[in-house]
Design a protein that fits this description.
By secondary structure, this protein is mostly helical. It has a single domain, classed as MetI-like (MetI-like fold, Orthogonal Bundle). 83% of the residues lie in helices and 0% in strands. The chain is built from ten helices and no strands. Helix 4 packs across helix 5 and helix 6 packs antiparallel against helix 7. The longest helix has 35 residues.
Length: 229
Amino acid sequence: MIIHQLQSLFSSYPLFLRGISMTIMLSIAALTLGTIIGFILGILRAESNKAVSSAIAVWVDLIRGTPFLVQIFIVFFILPELGIELDAYSAGIIGLSNLAACFICEIVYAGLRSVPKGQSEAAQALGLSRIKALRLIVLPQAMRIILPPLIGQYVLIIKDTSVISVIGLTDLTRVGWLVVQRVPNGLLVFAIVGIGYFIVCYPLIRGARYLEKRMDSAYNPKAARSSNS
């Protein structure tokens, strides 16, 4: 019985490869757009006037406070009723990019707020414009706070791609549902699906740990020397 199931699983490997490829492509597109938009929103929220900052905060809180499943249903099923037709892949990218942007916005905002305001004021007093002070003085310091949780958020977004399977996109999770119909061993099939997500996410997890160690050694040399000794 188990041998027959393993044979069926092995014959399904092209489908698993297609699913993991779709998950990777969807993740790269969503994370790229989400990072760009998230940094812009985070900087605007930290540096703009109160009205702009409050408007961004309301949108971010709305997205962070509602289930992603509901959001993707709105994008895929409700927007077409308003005349905006989207296929599953486009809807997935829009939904995931928006989700990533809102969480990344909060990470960037918190990082920028962690830098003492006097740093920017001193830079402007020395003749730097506000934008140059942000780019050359504030943002490099904030990146020490931003990078570790940012990569952790990347991992969470990659796992959230599994939700896109509900609108028919053949990602890794949907492949699992398709394969389990002909291989009636859900534990075995979804163990393989879980391993697939782990393979995609593990390099980012290792990258986050590496960055944390590098940041600690760069900003706390004594701790780095003691850990190496």
